[in-house]
C-alpha cells in the first residue's frame, strides 16, 4: 500500500531576518517566517509596536534595517525560485494587493467611477465593477460622490478592490476599520475563499478573527519588549 501524502503547499513569500528600527527604537529584530498558499497570517501587537512597519516592508514600500523579503518568481523556469522583491519589483507588484491606511478612493469621483478606476489600475477580475458593487453591498449608491459616503461606505468602496483582484498575495492593514458586523463576516468569508484557492493573506487587525480560527490562521505577535513570537 502506498502511504498517503498531503501535497506540500507552495511557498509564496519568505521574510528573512528582518530588523526594523524607527526613531532609534528597535521594533523587531531578526524576524523570519514563511507564508504558504492558503495561509492567513494575523500580525498583532499594541499600538506603535511595528505592525504597519512590518507590512510596508513586506510590500517593498519601505526597507528593513537588515534582512530581506523573497517571493516566488516565475522569472526563470525553476520550480523553486525565490527572489528578492527588490530585484523583481514589477513582477512582485503584479502578485500583490496592498490595502493600506489610505483608501485610494477619490472623493470627487462617484462610487462607480472609483470601481472602474480600480479595474483600470489594478484589475483583472472578469466579474468587473457590477459584481464588486454587489459584493460590498453598495448597490444604489453607484452614482454617489465618494466624498458624500459614510465612513463605512467609503471603506467598502475601497474594499471592492479585494473582489476585483486576482493577485495571490494580499497584505491588508486594518481592513475591518469602520466596517459593520455583516461586512466583517463577508470579509472573513472572502478571506477564506482566497486562501482556499491558493492565495495568502497577511493582515493587521485588533478584531478577533473567530470565523477563521479553524483554518490556517497563524499569528505574528510584536510587542514593545522586542520579544517576537510566531506561531
Ligand atoms: N516613517 C517613519 N518614520 C519615523 N518613525 C516611524 C515611521 N513609521 C513608523 N514610525 C514609528 O514606528 C513605530 C511603529 O509604528 P507602526 O505604525 O508600525 O505601529 P503599529 O503597530 O502599526 O501601530 P498602530 O496599532 O497604532 O497602527 C511608531 O512609534 C511610529 O511613530
From TrEMBL:
Gene3D superfamilies: P-loop containing nucleotide triphosphate hydrolases
ATP-binding found in the keyword field: yes
Keywords assigned: ATP-binding, Cytochrome c-type biogenesis, Membrane, Nucleotide-binding, Translocase, Transport
Segments forming domain ABC transporter: 13-230
Name of the molecule in the record: Cytochrome c biogenesis heme-transporting ATPase CcmA
Taxonomic source organism: Colwellia asteriadis
